[in-house]
Protein backbone atom coordinates (compact mmCIF):
# COMPACT_ATOMS: atom_id res chain seq x y z
CA UNK A 1 0.00 0.00 0.00
CA UNK A 2 2.88 2.35 0.82
CA UNK A 3 4.42 1.66 -2.60
CA UNK A 4 1.13 2.51 -4.30
CA UNK A 5 0.89 5.74 -2.30
CA UNK A 6 4.46 6.69 -3.26
CA UNK A 7 3.78 6.00 -6.91
CA UNK A 8 0.63 8.13 -6.72
CA UNK A 9 2.52 10.97 -4.99
CA UNK A 10 5.30 10.84 -7.58
CA UNK A 11 2.71 10.89 -10.40
CA UNK A 12 1.11 14.00 -8.89
CA UNK A 13 4.55 15.59 -8.61
CA UNK A 14 5.16 14.77 -12.27
CA UNK A 15 1.89 16.42 -13.32
CA UNK A 16 2.76 19.45 -11.19
CA UNK A 17 6.25 19.55 -12.71
CA UNK A 18 4.82 19.67 -16.22
CA UNK A 19 3.07 22.92 -15.33
CA UNK A 20 5.60 24.42 -12.91
CA UNK A 21 9.21 25.49 -13.23
CA UNK A 22 10.60 21.99 -13.01
CA UNK A 23 12.37 19.17 -14.74
CA UNK A 24 11.61 15.45 -14.86
CA UNK A 25 14.05 12.73 -15.81
CA UNK A 26 15.39 9.22 -15.47
CA UNK A 27 18.35 8.12 -13.38
CA UNK A 28 20.42 4.92 -13.39
CA UNK A 29 23.82 3.77 -12.27
CA UNK A 30 26.05 1.49 -10.24
CA UNK A 31 25.93 0.92 -6.46
CA UNK A 32 29.04 -0.09 -4.52
CA UNK A 33 27.21 -1.43 -1.52
CA UNK A 34 28.36 -2.64 1.88
CA UNK A 35 27.23 -3.12 5.45
CA UNK A 36 28.51 -1.09 8.39
CA UNK A 37 28.10 -1.58 12.11
CA UNK A 38 29.83 -2.62 15.31
CA UNK A 39 29.94 -6.29 14.34
CA UNK A 40 30.61 -5.93 10.61
CA UNK A 41 34.42 -5.71 10.52
CA UNK A 42 35.01 -8.59 8.11
CA UNK A 43 32.81 -7.52 5.21
CA UNK A 44 33.33 -6.59 1.58
CA UNK A 45 31.22 -4.54 -0.76
CA UNK A 46 29.13 -5.73 -3.71
CA UNK A 47 28.50 -4.07 -7.06
CA UNK A 48 24.73 -3.61 -7.53
CA UNK A 49 22.61 -1.10 -9.49
CA UNK A 50 19.91 1.56 -9.17
CA UNK A 51 17.36 3.02 -11.59
CA UNK A 52 14.30 5.21 -11.40
CA UNK A 53 12.73 8.63 -11.80
CA UNK A 54 14.04 12.00 -10.73
CA UNK A 55 12.54 15.47 -10.70
CA UNK A 56 13.77 18.93 -9.88
CA UNK A 57 11.57 21.80 -8.66
CA UNK A 58 13.38 25.14 -8.94
CA UNK A 59 12.92 27.38 -5.92
CA UNK A 60 14.89 30.33 -7.31
CA UNK A 61 14.42 32.07 -10.65
CA UNK A 62 18.11 31.69 -11.55
CA UNK A 63 17.90 27.86 -11.01
CA UNK A 64 20.58 28.06 -8.29
CA UNK A 65 18.49 26.19 -5.70
CA UNK A 66 16.04 23.34 -6.28
CA UNK A 67 14.23 20.58 -4.44
CA UNK A 68 14.95 17.18 -5.98
CA UNK A 69 12.62 14.27 -5.05
CA UNK A 70 13.35 10.86 -6.58
CA UNK A 71 11.99 7.34 -6.55
CA UNK A 72 14.65 4.70 -7.22
CA UNK A 73 14.82 0.93 -7.25
CA UNK A 74 18.14 0.32 -5.49
CA UNK A 75 19.98 -2.93 -4.79
CA UNK A 76 22.13 -3.04 -1.64
CA UNK A 77 23.90 -5.56 0.58
CA UNK A 78 27.33 -6.91 1.40
CA UNK A 79 29.39 -10.08 1.71
CA UNK A 80 31.92 -11.66 4.04
CA UNK A 81 35.59 -11.38 3.14
CA UNK A 82 35.77 -15.12 2.46
CA UNK A 83 32.73 -14.86 0.11
CA UNK A 84 30.93 -17.52 2.16
CA UNK A 85 28.05 -15.21 3.18
CA UNK A 86 26.24 -12.63 1.03
CA UNK A 87 23.25 -10.49 1.89
CA UNK A 88 21.48 -8.95 -1.11
CA UNK A 89 18.53 -6.63 -0.49
CA UNK A 90 16.42 -4.48 -2.80
CA UNK A 91 14.68 -1.24 -1.85
CA UNK A 92 12.49 1.49 -3.21
CA UNK A 93 14.48 4.58 -2.13
CA UNK A 94 12.75 7.96 -1.89
CA UNK A 95 15.33 10.70 -1.32
CA UNK A 96 14.27 14.35 -1.12
CA UNK A 97 17.41 16.35 -1.79
CA UNK A 98 18.33 20.01 -1.67
CA UNK A 99 20.10 20.69 -4.98
CA UNK A 100 22.53 23.60 -5.48
CA UNK A 101 23.83 24.52 -8.95
CA UNK A 102 27.28 26.11 -8.91
CA UNK A 103 27.91 26.46 -12.63
CA UNK A 104 28.31 23.05 -14.22
CA UNK A 105 29.00 21.53 -10.78
CA UNK A 106 26.12 20.68 -8.46
CA UNK A 107 25.80 19.63 -4.82
CA UNK A 108 22.94 17.68 -3.29
CA UNK A 109 22.00 16.44 0.18
CA UNK A 110 18.92 15.42 2.11
CA UNK A 111 16.92 12.73 3.90
CA UNK A 112 15.87 9.42 2.41
CA UNK A 113 13.30 6.78 3.29
CA UNK A 114 13.75 3.24 1.96
CA UNK A 115 11.13 0.50 1.60
CA UNK A 116 12.49 -3.04 1.46
CA UNK A 117 10.90 -5.05 -1.36
CA UNK A 118 13.06 -8.17 -1.72
CA UNK A 119 16.16 -9.89 -0.53
CA UNK A 120 18.16 -13.06 -0.38
CA UNK A 121 20.93 -14.56 1.68
CA UNK A 122 23.64 -16.79 0.22
CA UNK A 123 25.50 -19.12 2.59
CA UNK A 124 28.09 -21.23 0.82
CA UNK A 125 26.46 -22.40 -2.39
CA UNK A 126 22.90 -22.23 -1.03
CA UNK A 127 20.56 -19.29 -1.62
CA UNK A 128 17.70 -18.46 0.75
CA UNK A 129 14.96 -16.02 -0.20
CA UNK A 130 14.51 -13.75 2.81
CA UNK A 131 11.22 -13.46 4.57
CA UNK A 132 10.40 -9.77 4.22
CA UNK A 133 9.76 -9.61 7.97
CA UNK A 134 13.28 -10.79 8.87
CA UNK A 135 14.51 -7.21 8.48
CA UNK A 136 12.78 -3.86 8.87
CA UNK A 137 10.46 -3.01 6.01
CA UNK A 138 11.31 0.69 6.25
CA UNK A 139 14.58 2.42 7.02
CA UNK A 140 15.53 6.07 7.37
CA UNK A 141 18.73 7.46 5.99
CA UNK A 142 20.45 10.30 4.20
CA UNK A 143 22.09 10.99 0.85
CA UNK A 144 24.74 13.49 -0.24
CA UNK A 145 26.58 13.93 -3.49
CA UNK A 146 28.33 16.06 -6.07
CA UNK A 147 28.20 16.00 -9.84
CA UNK A 148 28.64 17.65 -13.19
CA UNK A 149 25.68 18.78 -15.32
CA UNK A 150 25.62 19.43 -19.06
CA UNK A 151 22.40 21.46 -18.97
CA UNK A 152 22.13 21.96 -22.75
CA UNK A 153 22.13 18.18 -23.26
CA UNK A 154 20.02 17.41 -20.21
CA UNK A 155 22.65 15.00 -18.88
CA UNK A 156 24.34 14.90 -15.50
CA UNK A 157 26.76 12.49 -13.91
CA UNK A 158 27.50 12.36 -10.22
CA UNK A 159 28.72 10.44 -7.22
CA UNK A 160 26.52 10.05 -4.18
CA UNK A 161 26.75 8.38 -0.80
CA UNK A 162 23.69 7.13 0.99
CA UNK A 163 23.64 5.56 4.40
CA UNK A 164 21.05 4.31 6.84
CA UNK A 165 20.42 5.92 10.20
CA UNK A 166 18.23 3.05 11.33
CA UNK A 167 19.44 -0.53 11.71
CA UNK A 168 18.34 -3.25 9.31
CA UNK A 169 16.75 -5.33 12.07
CA UNK A 170 15.27 -5.06 15.55
CA UNK A 171 16.49 -8.43 16.81
CA UNK A 172 18.66 -7.96 19.92
CA UNK A 173 20.51 -11.22 19.18
CA UNK A 174 21.41 -10.31 15.57
CA UNK A 175 24.42 -8.21 14.55
CA UNK A 176 23.79 -4.47 14.38
CA UNK A 177 24.34 -3.29 10.82
CA UNK A 178 23.22 -0.67 8.32
CA UNK A 179 23.43 -0.17 4.56
CA UNK A 180 26.29 1.95 3.26
CA UNK A 181 26.21 2.71 -0.47
CA UNK A 182 28.45 4.66 -2.83
CA UNK A 183 26.68 5.45 -6.10
CA UNK A 184 27.88 6.42 -9.56
CA UNK A 185 24.78 7.83 -11.19
CA UNK A 186 23.78 9.19 -14.58
CA UNK A 187 20.59 11.19 -15.17
CA UNK A 188 18.86 12.48 -18.28
CA UNK A 189 16.30 15.24 -17.81
CA UNK A 190 13.34 14.71 -20.14
CA UNK A 191 11.66 18.09 -19.76
CA UNK A 192 12.68 21.57 -18.73
CA UNK A 193 11.40 25.00 -17.93
Question: Can you put this structure into words, describing what you see?
Answer:
This protein has 193 residues and is mostly beta strands. The protein has a single domain, classed as Porin (Beta Barrel). The chain is built from one helix and ten strands. It has one helix at 2-19; strands at 22-36, 43-44, 46-58, 65-80, 85-102, 105-123, 126-129, 138-150, 155-164, 178-191. Strands 1-3-4-5-6-8-9-10 form an eight-stranded antiparallel β-barrel. A hairpin with a 2-residue loop joins strand 5 and strand 6. The chain is elongated, with a radius of gyration of 18 Å. Residues 18-162 form the Outer membrane protein beta-barrel domain. InterPro entries: Beta-barrel_OMP_2. It holds the Pfam family OMP_b-brl_2.
Key descriptive features of the protein:
193 residues, 64% strand, elongated, Porin, mainly beta, 1 helix
Would you kindly provide a brief summary of this structure?
The chain is mostly beta strands and 193 residues long. Helix content is 9%, strand content 64%. The model has no long low-confidence stretch (mean pLDDT 83).
Q: Into how many domains do the coordinates divide?
A: 1
Radius of gyration: 18 Å
Structural class based on helices, strands and sheet pairing: mainly beta
CATH architecture: Beta Barrel
Helical content band: under 10%
CA(first)-CA(last) distance: 33 Å
In terms of DSSP E residues, the strand content is: over 45%
| Strand runs, count | 10
Strand line-up in the sheet with most strands: 1-3-4-5-6-8-9-10
Figure out the total of helices: 1
Largest sheet: 8 strands, antiparallel, barrel
Domain Outer membrane protein beta-barrel: 18-162
Protein name: PorT family protein
Signal peptide: 1-22
Keywords: Signal
